[in-house]
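Task: sequence in, structure out. Protein: ABC transporter substrate-binding protein [Rhodococcus jostii RHA1].
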Amino acid sequence: MLGGIQDRRTKLWRIAAVFAATGAMALSGCSSSSEAPSEEGSPTAAAPAEKVDEIANTVPEAIKSTGTLVIGVNIPYAPNEFKDESGEIVGFDVDLMNAVAGTLGLTPDYREADFAKIIPSIQGGTFNVGMSSFTDSKEREEQVDFVTYFSAGTLWAKPAGADIDPENACGKKVAVQATTVQETDELPARSKKCTDEGKPAIEIVAFDSQDAATNAVVLGQADAMSADSPVTLYAIKQTNGKLEEAGETFDSAPYGWPVAKGSPLAQSLLQALQHLIDTGKYKEIAANWGLEDGMIDKPVINGAIS
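Result:
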């Protein structure tokens, strides 16, 4: 996600059964749970990746000796990282990191944390790497190094058939997850443009989670939502035709895995990911989640655009 360390561009849309049963009631007060986004389940997890000795030998000894890669993650952020009905952490990011860890001969150890605490925990040595749809930004590169693995932009969604898009949203209510770049940067700039032109401001409706923001649009409590493109596309799929894309994806930027500044682990992760790209495993995982549009050909260390 773009912006400062606490600016997470999207925290992804939860499809846990508890939300399907109670989320809409909590937001609407009187709406039936049948109005909430439906749950279709998640794709089958990808097959494990085999260890590649040449790449595994590049792992820092302090990590290699434990046999474990400790990964800080914040959920829910579907389809990248979220919990399935059994409580297991799943998603595109999870499948990809599992494959990377397998290539490195390590066992992934996912530890949940507040998003804003992941980078400080990497700096402090609690986590080896972060995996939470971080946008690689120049500001964050001052704190940690990033290995890029995906390209995501911002994409709006609206109720099916509604006449709204990012360029004609003056006076509209737009739902976002709080502290994301959509709330802190994108929508304030769009709203200012509206008022500068003598038009009504955009009403930014912020929620603590992306699932609540999505549900607000489904229930008619907001006119549209703005989130990271993978999140929006997945939310549209899960609502079974209630939502559709509003405009096109814009402001694309790389997702990256943060590691300690100067850590040789960055090179290990990069080589493992390049191996998965070259062998087709990366494409297989992305396709499994319907995220082929965001695939990259060549990962880099610190590839921030802004």
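The domain at 153-251 is CATH 3.40.190.10 (D-Maltodextrin-Binding Protein; domain 2).
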